[in-house]
Specification:
Structural class: alpha+beta
Number of strands: 5
Helix content: 55-70%
CATH superfamily of the largest domain: Ribosomal protein L10, N-terminal RNA-binding domain
Radius of gyration: 24 Å
Strand content: 15-25%
Strand order of the largest sheet: 2-3-1-4-5
Distance between the termini: 96 Å
Number of domains: 2
Shape: elongated
Number of helices: 6
CATH architecture of the largest domain: 2-Layer Sandwich
Order of helices and strands: HEHEHEHEEHH
Length: 172
């Protein structure tokens, strides 16, 4: 192999490795079976969420993830593979799982599917990715906590307001 070809390939792997290093999770997708319209809609959903989605050669993914210390992806990285990733741990998994669940086919073998992924530096299978997709996002978790904190205060204010109204009715 020519030295320039080797350097070009190493630069590609380094670029992918840099993108993956900023991601909290990776979701590998078997995109076979997506129509052009579905793929376009899928990519739009990914962009809307702030995640990234790319079709990358399996060998490039494998080298980039190995350089990041991730192993155990040999079975996952067989056949056509695309990868979705984001800086949020659950966004990519949610978008992929939500979108793929909307696709219906009579022939189940022609459905695109989640192959597996990487979470916190470890290889995970498709079932774990689907569980990750069901996890509330950071924003949802914060909203739940704020709602829980706000509820007792709101109840207290309503009780004080009722006491005030009763006193006004009694003096009137």
């Amino acid at each position: 192999m020519k030295e320039s070809t080797l350097q070009a390939k190493q630069q590609i792997v380094a670029g992918v490795q840099e993108q993956f290093s900023g991601a909290h999770s990776l979701v590998f997708v078997n995109y076979r079976g997506l129509t052009v319209a579905e793929d376009t809609a899928f990519r739009a959903k990914i962009r809307e969420s702030g995640a990234q989605y790319k079709v990358i050669k399996n060998t490039v993914i494998k080298r980039a993830t190995e350089n990041l210390g991730v192993t155990g992806l040999d079975e996952i990285l067989e056949g056509p593979t695309a990868v979705a990733y984001s800086s949020d741990p659950v966004t990519a998994a949610k978008v992929v799982d939500d979108f793929l669940s909307t696709i219906k086919r009579d022939d189940k073998s022609k459905l695109p599917s989640i192959k597996g992924g990487v979470y916190e530096g470890k290889a995970i299978d498709a079932e774990v990715v689907k569980k990750l997709a069901k996890t509330p996002s950071r924003e949802q978790s914060i909203a739940r906590i704020m709602g829980s904190l706000n509820s007792p205060i709101s109840s207290f204010v309503r009780a004080l307001n009722e006491i005030r109204k009763k006193k006004e009715e009694a003096t009137a």
